[in-house]
Write a sequence for this structure.
């Protein structure tokens, strides 16, 4: 059975449906992947994830390496067993988090003058944001850690450059990412996996917002023996105009027969349509659950043209309607906006979970509709009917 | 159909099983009632409550009066509909919270010199802990608020005195509580209920830790036309030696054919047995969910003689066992101590919910066993086998 199979191509766009086959089950694509950074999709349990229709979830190599550590997870038979989630999992390589540590100065217990991240051609040395302890990721180590964690799909270790880096630095970092990509493949091919199921390795295209570099990176990453091709970088998902440009630049270069993955896409419902239209099969973003915990809840455009409401607004205090009457999620089937408003105003934890269930269901239901529409060559019609 | 019916009396103690009939369903007694202060049992949804076997939950008149207000709840058809819980609900009268405000100085947005609570013979004026606004509860107002909120069982408004108050003050407050009890009954009999189902009114025995006052209070409250008899006070539940003494003093005075309710009992598994043994039918406590959120999880004595573990302790970091292998809750059926330890260390909200599910299930499962044991006249045997 092939790892990836295209089942239908939309006649009017690059959108396509497909199947990704892993030893933990099949993923119908395109699909949005909920993020479970620390081995939990925040506030949700495994039954919640099944109920909302999650086919695959993400976890984070950087966070899991620091806590509870890959060795502990391996001792439990891998992340599926550790967190008791028996469907597919993808781990990112930690590259994005390691580099964003240096940018975001989010670390605790580290004096602000200390350099948090130091990059050389062999790898990256960084300090834990938890306790300031020193760690080092090389491409080989990032693959070994991911082998221990045991996700079905693992990611090459890359250098994620800031968008404001100049062309010369971005090029240097990109070339390093390409060298690291080859080293990740070599390490992966040693078959040192700790688990009795297959793990698949994806490469990551970098090059920030430079057309020449993105095209060069797409060519090189596409030429290597990866199971799937990801597009990474600070802009992806965060800046959708840049994301669309980048996808348009690389769309003809990356091989059609491998899954395409945009890392960090899914801030807004419209984003899902933009990347699917450009042939993307997989994407993930922390935003649906993060904004849910701040009270921002997705709705159809008939309710609000921005496609969200903020449940904390006083207008919802006496509102006896569900968040979105069209939505089939547990929250909308059981609770009013007024009750959710009350839970948020009263700082009740249940509100965070009900909001997270809604936002993820909203996205995954859109993905179900998108897949159906592609199969019937009416993806652009659906896009228009949902986004207006 | 009678409101309360005793179905079996244990041959070897005062323990008894019974049925409480409300328009929202039947409650098998004795039972522990989970507390949902702000119209939510913290971290749990209605399906969780059904799964753990909650027959009735509590809510708090003081908190709901301040937010979202009884008028809003009434507009939604009552608390059952507002929070979408269709089984029985009990509201306390707010007396305990109003008076503990004055004791605990927990209020925010109120300067520390301001007097938070002022009591007179007609009622109590107090400042909101949320915004410092002034409110007044009289017995009539407390009943009217509870009529609007719409719980199946409502409580008389009482003055809850601190245990260190002298006999003279405690007596004065107790007499006020008795006068207020009659006023609550008068107000309740006006049948101004806002809902199309019956609400039942319980009286509260006060008298702190003074035997003479407790007996006097038990006689007077028992002589009034209440549907059930509660035993209130600072010690109840919090100080189990005092609680047992008080129950022994009043046990022969309060009528057998009304439900007996100790307000605030259920810090530890042993407490359930102590009050049931003394003929109590209902009790509630915030402790099982509050301590759960701090990582304290109930276990059988074979695991730890204290009957709890603290999941944050490092000994559980690599522990692949469930919290308690004898427990049938969702958490124990699905997750290891190591995973829970990880969730707590990583400040993940899912940990709080999994812990709350476990502690409440543990209590409610004990209550099921207690009811079965009473019916077979082996309550004391069960007590010995569980507590050792």
């Amino acid at each position: 059975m092939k790892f990836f199979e295209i089942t239908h191509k939309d006649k009017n766009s690059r959108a396509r449906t497909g199947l990704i086959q892993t030893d933990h089950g099949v993923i119908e694509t395109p699909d949005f992947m909920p993020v479970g950074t620390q081995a939990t999709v925040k506030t949700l349990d495994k039954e919640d994830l099944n109920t909302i229709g999650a086919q695959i979830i993400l976890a984070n190599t950087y966070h899991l390496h620091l806590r509870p550590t890959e060795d502990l997870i391996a001792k439990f038979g891998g992340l599926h067993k550790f967190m008791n989630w028996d469907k597919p999992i993808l781990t990112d390589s930690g590259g994005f988090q390691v580099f964003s540590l240096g940018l975001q100065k989010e670390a605790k217990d580290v004096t602000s003058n200390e350099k948090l991240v130091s990059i050389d051609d062999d790898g990256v040395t960084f300090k834990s944001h938890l306790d300031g302890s020193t760690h080092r990721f090389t491409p080989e180590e990032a693959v070994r850690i991911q082998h221990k964690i045991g996700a079905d799909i693992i990611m090459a270790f890359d250098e994620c450059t800031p968008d404001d880096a100049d062309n010369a630095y971005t090029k240097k970092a990109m070339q390093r990412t390409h060298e690291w990509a080859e080293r990740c493949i070599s390490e992966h091919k040693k078959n040192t996996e700790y688990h009795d199921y297959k793990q698949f390795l994806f490469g990551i295209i970098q090059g920030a917002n430079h057309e020449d570099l993105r095209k060069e990176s797409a060519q090189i990453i596409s030429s290597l023996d990866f199971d799937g091709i990801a597009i990474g970088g600070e802009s992806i998902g965060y800046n959708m105009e840049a994301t669309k440009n980048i996808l348009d630049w690389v769309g003809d270069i990356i091989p059609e027969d491998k899954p395409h993955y945009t890392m960090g896409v899914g801030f807004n419902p419209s984003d899902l349509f933009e990347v699917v239209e450009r042939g993307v099969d997989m994407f993930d973003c922390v935003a649906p659950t993060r904004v849910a915990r701040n009270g921002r809840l997705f709705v159809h455009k008939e309710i609000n043209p921005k496609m969200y409401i903020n449940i904390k607004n006083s207008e919802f205090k006496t509102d006896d309607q569900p968040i979105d009457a069209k939505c089939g999620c547990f929250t909308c089937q059981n609770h009013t906006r007024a009750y959710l408003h009350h839970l948020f105003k009263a700082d009740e934890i249940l509100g965070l979970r009900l909001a997270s269930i809604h936002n993820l269901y909203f996205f995954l239901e859109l993905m179900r509709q998108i897949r159906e529409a592609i199969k019937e060559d009416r993806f652009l019609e659906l896009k228009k009917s949902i986004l207006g």
About this structure: Residues 104-113 of chain A have pLDDT under 50 and may be disordered. The radius of gyration of chain A is 21 Å.
